[in-house]
Amino acid sequence: MVQREGYLIFDIGTGNARVAVTDTAGNILSVKRSDIHYERDPEVPAALFFHPQPLWESILQLAQAALKEAGELKILGLTSTSQRQGIVLLDKEGNHLIGLPNIDNRGNGFEKELSSPEQIYQMTGRWPTPLFSGLKMMAFKEQCPDFWDRTAFITSISGWVTYQLSGHLVYEPSQATETLLYDVREDRWSPDLCDMFGLPVSMLPPVVPAGTVLGETLQEIAEVLNLDRGTKVIVGGADTQLAVKSVKPTVGDVVAVSGTTTPLTLVMDRYIHDQDARSWTNSHVEDQQWLLETNCGVTGLNYQMVKNIFYPQESYAVIEEEMSKMAEVECFAALGTSLISSREMKVPQYGGFYFKMPISHQLSRAHFAWATLWDIACAVKEAYETMVDITGRKPTYILGCGGGFQSETLRSLVAEMLGLELRIPKVSHQASIVGATIICNEALGRRDEVEESVERISPTGDPSVQRIYQRWQDLQKGICLGESL
């Protein structure tokens, strides 16, 4: 009997940590998850942080449970992926000190201290905002000087995981992109950028490409997880880039990743950036490739919140069924989606659902769910139009992946809104995990076994679509005008 083979994949998102076991074909054999606990700094209201040690202990427990559920399997390698913009600080002995997640906004206001934001944008492909870890560190240095004095190194959260597994501390390019200390054009750390932020180059680990075999699993970790001695640890990358990797795009393809946010990415073989700073340019997990990104902001999280309010005990399938029975459009939504990759990063502080008055007796919870999905589709349309304006390219189709595209309604709405065929690979649901599987196969020189079957959703040319988009744009403008109320 041929023994099954596969990988152990660590995926540290914004809301929860997941550990998955996959076979070499990308089939997910088990996934275990737990929420990540963040704490607030009472001295800095916008600051959030996490303690690495309890998170690491939780991750190991998830790994043990996932391996047990997966059954008999030879683990060939381990890798990790994680949220972008999140970092872990370590002392000179390599002990983790504190974690700063992507949603840590302690850097608010520090961007005003930067003298050359245009130069930073040209080198890094992103306008400096508090989202990025360079500004988090700049703020942390001032707000927590005693803690900062103990800090010798930083790495991404995915890099921290592979360090815990292997003992080798590195930074991977798709994650280094998010620091504002990395010259994305040249794929290297920039001493000039470090000087602009007042941060030492010495705290930045070596840059190592995704798919590099980093070393063997530490003996104590192998014993805890009951792995063979010599099991390889492989450099992973940022969750968005690995999600893009999962659909196997070629240069020129546009990929929408429907998750907590919805990045719209164009795969490129050269570095370009928008003169008006409406996009990000990211290092990819593929050598000599970049991703031009226009990001719709919070989308999937909005839908999850609406489900929790209106369908707390029901499945997403129930929502789909109820939406399919709707006869009339009774509700529209403007829920704060915005191009977070733009220079201004102007996200409305107010929003909501809009319906005719007096309230119709036909208005149901399904209309609120439908309106939320339309809000996402309209935001994707806006991001797409911005990308076309920047690049001048109009694709004949787009690729989609991520958990949001499990919704048949969202699939059809996006295809209709863009007027393009939407292609969703079979493996699209756990996209970053599947992308990590492909990375592992490549690292170990194995044949690509991940299935490439694709579902194609074509637009019907519904003439009401553009009217809905215009209504959505009008709502956005009205909310922005009244956001100070």
From TrEMBL:
Report whether Transferase shows up as a keyword of the record. yes
GO molecular-function annotation terms?
Answer: kinase activity
Give GO BP annotations, semicolon-separated: carbohydrate metabolic process
Identify the residues that the record assigns to the Carbohydrate kinase FGGY N-terminal domain, covering every copy.
Answer: 7-244
Q: Which SUPFAM superfamilies match?
A: Actin-like ATPase domain (SSF53067)
Among the Pfam families in the record, one is: FGGY_N
Carbohydrate kinase FGGY C-terminal domain residues? 346-441
| Coiled-coil region | none
Q: Which UniProt keywords apply?
A: Kinase, Transferase
Give the superkingdom in one word: Bacteria
User: What family is this protein classified in?
Assistant: Belongs to the FGGY kinase family.
Q: Know the name of this protein?
A: Sugar kinase
Species name: Kroppenstedtia pulmonis
Taxonomy of the source species: Bacteria, Bacillati, Bacillota, Bacilli, Bacillales
